[in-house]
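REVIEWER CHECKLIST
Item 1: Sequence provided? yes
Item 2: Single chain? yes
Item 3: Sequence as submitted:
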Amino acid sequence: MSASMVRATVRAVSKRKILPTRAALTLTPAAVNKIRTLLQDKPEYIGLKVGVRTRGCNGLTYTLDYTKEKAKSDEEVLQDGVRVFIEKKAQLTLLGTEMDFVESKLSTEFVFNNPNIKGTCGCGESFNI
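Item 4: Structure as written out by the authors:
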């Protein structure tokens, strides 16, 4: 067999369930609408960038910034016409997370419902994994 020849075998699988892959980040309709509104008056930006930083009383906190371009190592999430980029450092910590936007009498904020978090601080701003 020559070095340039590659062989593959295909098998039909009927009894095994194929599990769907987990999305890096999913957005709720409220989050999509808010991101769309935020970017509406800023045509120079292509989306939001989500990252994590070491700070707070429990270790890590989320960062949100506008971005003009996709960095080489960013993971892109495109949902309902809205683009969110995840920094490389944040990709594993955000796996399977839902990003929501919540308005109450006291605050309006993005909320990250993250199944990977082991603990949070009392105010809910920082977390550990």
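Item 5: Key structural point noted by reviewer: The longest helix spans residues 29-40.
Item 6: Recommendation: ____
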